[in-house]
Write a structure and sequence with these properties.
Strand content: under 5%
Oligomer: single chain
Distance between the termini: 71 Å
Radius of gyration: 23 Å
Largest sheet: 2 strands, antiparallel
CATH superfamily of the domain at 6-110: Winged helix-like DNA-binding domain superfamily/Winged helix DNA-binding domain
CATH class of the domain at 6-110: Mainly Alpha
Length: 154
């Protein structure tokens, strides 16, 4: 029997893709990874997870990048620690992807150093001094129905 490690069911978790045998969504796993969780910590905090299921969730995110764009670095890797080479050993080849399931640093060990890349500031970056002054109307103290609230005298 082949297990599909990432499931999508419109009746479960509002259709959000989740890991087989758990109530953890792919998005939640990516948030944990971005927050610094490595495989050891993930499995300690969520013993229902399996190494292959975590790797499949990371691969699912890579295959559905448009839905998980916020979790990808400018170089195309997933944010946060991936699996080490040792943790990834024994996984199916399709799940061992540098920068996605396997930590990029681990996957690039022994290769010559790449030149440093300078990433320019995005065009939407705003410096605090360049913001216009607020133009909000003063608040009258009453709600949208003209009164100050339940039980208030006034």
């Amino acid at each position: 029997m082949t297990i599909k490690w990432v499931k999508v069911d419109p009746l479960v978790l509002n259709g959000e893709p989740f890991c087989y045998g758990t109530r953890l969504t792919v998005r939640q796993l990516l948030e944990l990874r971005r927050g610094g969780y490595d495989l050891t910590r993930l499995l300690a905090d969520h013993p229902e997870l399996r190494r292959v299921g975590v790797a499949a969730a990371y691969r699912y995110a890579a295959d559905h990048r448009q839905s998980y764009a916020a979790f990808f670095e400018p170089d195309g890797s997933l944010a946060g620690p991936g699996l080490s080479d040792e943790e990834a050993s024994g996984l199916p080849e399709r799940l061992r992807v540098a920068g996605i399931t396997v930590a990029r640093d681990s996957a690039l060990a022994g290769l010559p150093d790449a030149p440093a890349v300078t990433i320019p500031s995005p065009p939407y970056a705003v410096h605090a001094g360049s913001l216009p002054a607020a133009t909000a109307k003063p608040h009258s103290g009453t709600g949208k129905h003209g009164h100050k609230g339940k039980g208030r005298k006034g």
